[in-house]
Amino acid sequence: MKEWIHRFKSVYKEIQTDVRSYILSKFVYKQVPSDEETYLLRNQLPVRLMIGRKQHIPDILYIERMSYDGATPWGRTALENDMLQNPKSLYYVLYEGYSPIAFLGVRLDGKDIHITNLAVVPEFQQIGAATLLLRVLKGFADEKGAASISLEVRISNHRAKSLYAKMGFLSERVKQHYYHGDGEDALEMVWPLTGKQSEVKEDVHATHV
């Protein structure tokens, strides 16, 4: 009889543990936000936005090669170190179907969020991909209570500078000989997220599905 009671208690305890684990897993699932969202770009092209993880590094390298004439300004080692070793880094990767088309990398630096990388595959430029990434980043920055978003852009990249200005970035200063290789100057731009200057000058964001 004692042995039967002992077995019953053991089985009952296992059932309780399984039930607790099930309830906890459901609770955690509801609390953790999805790593994937769907949007429509300006041409109504559906795209998937994902949080960048280690498994996305090959896709990020592909986007770099397509965007920088075969070069990868940030190689695999640099990306792995930033993604896996730096708790203040964040990446977004944009897909059209299963094809990677754009990515954005940032670092949280106090009250500022600094953009380290932003690249779009050429055939998907000018349809709102970069704008979408920046708008999603601004939403994240607002949630975190960030005061600004900053970046550097090549002096010669007039298209990018125009986009950033439309989003609300202000020119701060020129950093001479900033870029390795050719030594081109960079323009530092800052998007203040408080006051009227943080407002987007044009409604250019993509549609969330």
Automatic annotation (TrEMBL):
One of its GO terms (molecular function) is N-acetyltransferase activity. InterPro entries: AcTrfase_RimI/Ard1 (IPR006464), Acyl_CoA_acyltransferase (IPR016181), GNAT_dom (IPR000182), YpeA/RimI_acetyltransf (IPR050680). The keyword Lyase does not apply. Keywords: Acyltransferase, Cytoplasm, Transferase. CDD domains: NAT_SF. Residues 45-194 form the N-acetyltransferase domain. It comes from the Bacteria. PANTHER family: ACETYLTRANSFERASE, ACETYLTRANSFERASE YPEA. Belongs to the acetyltransferase family. RimI subfamily. This is Ribosomal-protein-alanine N-acetyltransferase. It comes from Trichococcus collinsii.
